[in-house]
Automatic annotation (TrEMBL):
First and last residue of the signal peptide: none
Acyl-CoA dehydrogenase/oxidase C-terminal domain location: 241-388
Full protein name: Acyl-CoA dehydrogenase family protein
Organism whose genome encodes this protein: Streptomyces fildesensis
Positions of the Acyl-CoA oxidase/dehydrogenase middle domain: 139-229
Record lineage: Bacteria, Bacillati, Actinomycetota, Actinomycetes, Kitasatosporales
Amino acid sequence: MSGSALPPFDPYDPLGIDDLLSDEDRAVRETVRNWAADRVLPYVADWYESGELPVIRELARELGAIGALGMSLTGYGCAGASNVQYGLACLELEAADSGIRSLVSVQGSLAMYAIHRFGSEEQRQEWLPRMASGEVIGCFGLTEPDVGSDPAGMRTYAKRDGDDWVLNGRKMWITNGSVAGVAVVWARTDDGIRGFVVPTDAPGFSAPEIKHKWSLRASVTSELVLDDVRLPAGAVLPEGAGLKGPLSCLSHARYGIVWGAMGAARSSFVSALEYSKTREQFGRPIGGFQLTQAKLADMAVELHKGILLAHHLGQRMDAGRLRPEQVSFGKLNNVREAIEICRTSRTILGANGISLEYPVMRHATNLESVLTYEGTVEMHQLVLGKALTGLDAFR
């Protein structure tokens, strides 16, 4: 080894993390990266500025065609990819835009995962193949207007009426809601919390879109309104009783965020790095000044530590050893650091950092939503605090 040449230093992979990936991992990553470069990056600034995602149905079908919907699930038309590969896909999607990764996460890690894990065989056969192909978009109804971090306090109620169920209530901040063909809705019953598979054409169901957002603007966000929605007995998720059902779905989705946040951070870091080498002040590129180099070095350290953390959690998930507390660890760290990377990148770009000609401000505002959804900072701190001390500080 003393005479062997070291590989060159790669500023875009300074720790050589690619060495941890298999050829198949890299192929999955390149497929998603190329799709995003072709179908999202040329248009996403306009979608963000207009606050619309007008081609969401087309994008869903294309994502289905490359195997990105429910990709870590097996059977029913799903790709059966590893969780590391799913994570790499999330990173590449969020490097394009958090809204696109949210579309995929809600479809696969929430709606499809709930049906796959807790549904009946009839429900799986009816919905999963069409959701995997992108023919049907799904959404996941848990959060309510007055109930966020404490889902046990939900007010949506399902009452038995003969063999049927009748649902009444509201759900809020639901990604994909107004374009979904099926909603997985969680409701209180006389026997506790249960999950229901709700076709969105059911009478009494509506999903008005939420406008005037300053974050996740290239994403469809809706309220779900359930007014005497009548469902047959077969609409109940047979294995989805209690809070364990929705919380396990959220843990699956949070895992994708651990990777995805690093995609937004990478995009912002690369923009700042490239800008620093061409923007001149005081007669030379700003990348040649010590303070700028300190910012770039600190960002690179946190970015690639976060990617290493995501990869480690993915390996644990593939081995069946990933605990929810470890997902909280990753979500808390990576989203928090990703926002800081975006903000620091903005300072390097100066005034240009607020322009949609660059992705930095778009990523920063998107991550403000990512910081909150799937568990706020405070909730993940308390999850870890309880795990560390054995003492419950939630109540």
